[in-house]
Amino acid sequence: MNKEKIWLSSPHMGGEELKYVNGAFEDNWIAPLGPNVTGFENDIKEYLTQNGSSDIEVAALSSGTAALHLALILLGVKRGDEVICQSMTFAASANPIMYLGAIPIFVDSEEDTLNICPHQLEIAIKERISKGNKPKAIIAVHLYGMPYQVEEINKISRKYGIPVIEDSAEALGSKYKNVHCGTLGDYSILSFNGNKIITTSGGGALITKDIQAKRKAIFLATQARDDAPHYQHSEVGYNYRLSNICAGIGRGQMQVLDKRVEARRDMFQFYVNLFRKIEGVRVFEEPSVDYFSNHWLTVIEVDELKTDGIGREELRKCLGTENIESRPLWKPMHMQPVFKDYPYYGTGIAEKMFRNGLCLPSGSNLTDNDRLRIEKAILNCLTK
Ligand SMILES: *Cc1c(COP(=O)(O)O)cnc(C)c1O
User: Fold this and answer.
1) pLDDT above 70 covers what percent of the chain?
2) Residue 61 CB less than 6 A away from ligand 1
3) From ligand 1's centre to the CA of 217, what distance in Å?
């Protein structure tokens, strides 16, 4: 097998990343602060508010996980507190709950967006309150770029007075009712890891509407140093700020973000057309015009009762023999060994999707030839 590997999602440079990185070298800003960091924050802020949505503040950080950790701290989450988290997600959504000694309460997905189910969320909140443990926060995720049911979730958040942390790590460029994901929660987070829609090699951001909260986040992210000529600390801090080099990559990537969204959406359309010809496979589309997904990854559900018994694992292996990467959906957190003993509210939607769902190669840098190979491999496997 000497065919070149087709990746699920790989970094795609193309703007003026090196110009900004070179600038950092020339000015010797090789540090977790500098003009690229401020510039990158402004670029993100400008991008996310381009439809005139409410004012936001952006803090560039070393990862999306760090941003989630700080969001929980800023909401006052402490040891023994309960925090609700969408079960079907990447472990990074839930791990920061554990860093604080808090207790994760997992909630199932609904079928339309694959994100946190409003109905199960409300059941969970009511039961936790009846046990005397009102949850401190709700972590909701826009999985694979698809916005969660924003209005329904916000309504529940207001009704019970529990803030939402919007995990928008996979959804930069997505919108709900024409408002950017990343501005829809009480706190929101982004990720710029290597496989995301744009990357800084590693990085993230915390987004808030409150300038004081941004200042506090940066204070905590830079070792919580008090205002004094010597090193003075009255709180425990972290080393979570983004480096000026990585931020330089981010500035170049922001210039091409809209193109990257367009290319991912185009890849999605390719799969929609392809699977029209094939029985038994559902491509996950936006449920209504209120939803605009960046289609970071295209997701399908395989119904082996209609595909002559070929399930998602067989399809994944077929693609693998052609050196084409595909991957099962995130394994739900309540099924993970590390989280299995924590409460879970649901009816098995996430479990079913984990069993039958597959993410297909969706990178913005896939070529026409890659598409031909993917199409041939899928047709070979499913229409024998
Ligand atoms: C990638 C990701 C994160 C974490 O971001 P990092 O920058 O890798 O720390 C969090 N949540 C989700 C849903 C992600 O996909």
Assistant:
1) 98
2) no
3) 18
